[in-house]
């Protein structure tokens, strides 16, 4: 196994830190070899590793390193019931699946040797013929595996973590793209809106259940607003939608009947009664607050302490890694990691770039400051994007602060090929679009495109230009204010500015990272907002020599 210079230089430091119960933070850019390094150092400390990623698509790079460099290690992976079950549609909530009534509720002794996606498809094909459950068979394989691949919920959601019956102290746990842990509690948020209730009504059979849901729909519509920002709903107003124990029991009986009928008919679709019930179950937790957001009620935790507390267990070995990790003081104060930490920024240690390069340009005649988001400003931004499009070598990624402003700008983009992110956009959609010619890919900060895509050919990025349309500060809404207030109370200092700036910085770095996927990549980063012309932004983005431009 050949190591890069940085890997050889810091390997022993990381191994010693893990052995001495330090939580290791590893910041290194995409394409620098983090995955291989993390596996190598972790397996030097313990015989078993759990590799935790954000999405199932991120299993493959880990499998690739294992199959190339660690062929003696047995690997296993786990996906959710809704993905593993042979009778489900993709939108089913795993908690809605009634396994006890399934004729395939058996475990088979399966071997996992192929890539995760291929292995899962094979299991699902074989399970019907041989009469076993892919999910529980995969669950059984993790007991004997040396390296286990999981997604975030299996580590950070306590009830799901406990369901695995794993002794976590036996493993080194690697968390990839770990900058995402800041908002990890969002995995557990629950939504309720008119559409969900109407679909629950269509599934309900008894008139009693339908009447309960009709009243709920009528009262809910008085509490929600169309704004795409979180507006706190006070407890007095929530009383109007509160369901009694008897009403919850009535809905639960209907819900259980639907679950059993679906598995009996071998056709599992989303059970909307379950969505209603789980919303009200979450409200029982006093740490949960309810907000109106885009015509929905959203029940969510204000801070993530209950979800990240496992990181503070000094009996468990952790390595958190990302190319855009938050600063150490932010991880301690805002996120709440209070154990011993070794923070390693590889490029600072090596005093050089480990991967591709980019040139920065700062536009001095545009801004997305909310009070100036006019149609005239949108036209100017469109002119910049057209200029970038016609002068770029490859495809362009443009990241916006909001869907609203993205739609406003897109009205003035004529005669060019572009794709706008929406709730249904997939990586397959993007790849299909870019195959047809040069494309302007437009996404939202902290969305699936700005963090979740890799468009490459032979290892080289197909994105040559990244346009950051404005500064993607998180919206200063009731959720952010409440979160800042709670953290500030604990720390006895105001953290609002830090909370906003670091989230924006992480979003910008993630967007830039879409264009730098290997040491051979070169990109142009267009910082389209005059507010980037500050020492803080230029220093944090390694853009001290940025060129200033105007239309």
UniProtKB/TrEMBL annotation:
Any GO MF annotation of the entry: 4 iron, 4 sulfur cluster binding
GO biological process: DNA repair
Taxonomic lineage from the root: Archaea, Thermoproteota, Thermoprotei, Sulfolobales, Sulfolobaceae
EC number: 3.6.4.12
Keywords per UniProt: 4Fe-4S, ATP-binding, DNA damage, DNA repair, DNA-binding, Helicase, Hydrolase, Iron, Iron-sulfur, Isomerase, Metal-binding, Nucleotide-binding
Superkingdom: Archaea
Residues in Helicase ATP-binding domain copies: 1-235, 15-223
The species this protein was found in: Sulfolobus tengchongensis
Pfam annotation, one family: DEAD_2
Enzyme class, spelled out: hydrolase
Protein name: ATP-dependent DNA helicase
């Amino acid at each position: 196994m050949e190591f890069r210079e940085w890997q050889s230089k810091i390997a022993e430091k990381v191994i010693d830190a893990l052995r001495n119960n330090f939580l290791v933070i590893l910041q290194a850019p995409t394409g620098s070899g983090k995955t291989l390094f993390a596996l190598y150092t972790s397996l030097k400390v313990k015989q078993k590793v759990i590799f935790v990623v954000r999405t199932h698509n991120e299993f493959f790079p880990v499998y690739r390193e294992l199959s190339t460099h660690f062929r003696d290690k047995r690997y296993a992976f786990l996906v959710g019931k809704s993905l593993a079950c042979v009778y489900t549609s993709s939108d089913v909530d795993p908690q809605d699946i009634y396994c006890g009534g399934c004729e395939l509720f058996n475990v088979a002794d399966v071997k996992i040797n192929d890539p995760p996606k291929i292995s899962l498809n094979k299991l699902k094909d074989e399970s019907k013929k041989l009469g076993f459950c892919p999910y529980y068979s995969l669950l059984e394989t993790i007991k004997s595996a040396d390296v286990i691949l999981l997604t975030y919920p299996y580590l950070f959601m306590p009830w799901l973590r406990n369901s695995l019956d794993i002794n976590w102290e036996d493993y080194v746990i690697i968390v990839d793209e770990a900058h995402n842990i800041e908002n990890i509690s969002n995995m557990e948020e629950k939504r309720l809106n008119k559409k969900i209730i109407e679909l629950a009504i269509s599934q309900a059979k008894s008139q009693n259940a339908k009447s309960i849901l009709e009243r709920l729909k009528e009262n809910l519509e008085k509490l929600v607003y169309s704004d795409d920002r979180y507006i706190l709903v006070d407890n007095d107003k929530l009383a109007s939608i509160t369901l009694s124990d008897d009403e919850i029991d009535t809905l639960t009986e209907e819900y259980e009947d639907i679950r059993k009928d679906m598995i009996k008919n071998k056709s599992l679709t989303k059970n909307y009664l379950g969505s209603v019930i789980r919303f009200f179950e979450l409200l029982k937790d006093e740490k949960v607050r309810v907000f109106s957001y885009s015509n929905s009620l959203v029940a969510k935790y204000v801070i993530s302490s209950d979800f990240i507390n496992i990181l503070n267990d000094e009996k468990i070995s952790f390595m958190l890694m990302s190319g855009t990790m938050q600063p150490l003081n932010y991880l301690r104060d805002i996120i709440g990691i209070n154990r011993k930490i070794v923070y390693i920024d590889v490029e600072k240690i090596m005093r050089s770039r480990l991967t591709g390069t980019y040139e920065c340009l700062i536009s001095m005649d545009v801004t997305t400051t909310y009070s100036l988001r006019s149609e005239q400003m949108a036209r100017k931004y469109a002119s910049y994007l057209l200029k970038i499009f016609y002068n770029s070598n490859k495809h362009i990624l443009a990241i916006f602060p909001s869907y609203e402003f993205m739609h406003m700008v897109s009205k003035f983009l004529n005669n060019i090929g572009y794709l706008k992110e929406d709730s249904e956009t997939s990586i397959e959609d993007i790849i299909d679009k870019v195959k047809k010619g040069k494309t302007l890919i437009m996404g939202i900060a902290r969305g699936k495109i700005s963090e979740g895509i890799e468009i490459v050919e032979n290892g080289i990025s197909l994105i040559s230009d990244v346009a950051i349309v404005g500064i993607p500060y998180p919206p200063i809404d009731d959720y952010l204010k409440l979160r800042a207030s709670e953290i500030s109370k604990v720390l006895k200092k105001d953290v609002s500015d830090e909370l906003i700036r670091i989230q924006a910085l992480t979003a910008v770095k993630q967007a830039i990272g879409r264009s730098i996927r290997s040491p051979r990549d070169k990109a142009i980063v267009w910082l389209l907002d005059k507010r980037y012309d500050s020492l803080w932004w230029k220093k944090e983005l390694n853009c001290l020599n940025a060129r200033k431009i105007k239309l």
